[in-house]
Design brief:
224 residues, alpha/beta, Rossmann fold, seven-stranded mixed beta sheet, 7 strands, 39% helix, globular, rRNA processing, rRNA_ssu_MeTfrase_G, EC 2.1.1.170
Amino acid sequence: MSNELIALGVEGLGLDLTPENLANLELFLQEMHRWNRVHNLTAIDNEQDSIRLHLIDSITVLPIMRHYLKIQSPQIADLGSGGGLPAIPIAILQPSWHLTLIEAVRKKTAFLQHIRGKLGLKNIEVLSERAEAVAKARPGQFDAVISRAFSSLTQFLDLSLPLLRPGGLVFAMKGKRADEELKAVCIDSWQLLADESLHIPNLAVERRLLVLSPMRKLPLSAQH
């Protein structure tokens, strides 16, 4: 078991990680750090520590996602996947979930393809496309959409909507501006199912996971 991940508090997340899980998370961090020195995958201050904390940040959402995603093999899109957060850690820990990583920057998708092969992650696919293009090509194909620090909440919801199947869910990872961003969401279009505070061990910043679902539009005959 990785002493570094233990020091960050990964055991306190209650996820019952196996030695193989920890080894794969460690390898992901090592490869991300190695590529970041050359390709600038993430804009961070303290490189190695920040990458590790980003990983912990990413996997704290899992208990909530597990609660809401009841189907056995959900199809999940990660918008603006960047260096693979949160999708790669989630894929490592949830091998039955299928994750589609959508990232328009080719140097980042090159890394995502590399890590897919390096870790043998058969449950992910990488699309070097803008979210709008994927929505046109594959409308209504996803049970859930997630993002981490991708855009404003309203923009994220607008991009997610055409990707979602009926009854689909949006998982928005947000920080201290979550309340402000929620005020801009049209309550006639979206239902807030959950607003969960996330405890990140050894990280004294506010993290929240918002779970939203699009409101069903009534047929015209039912509106009279």
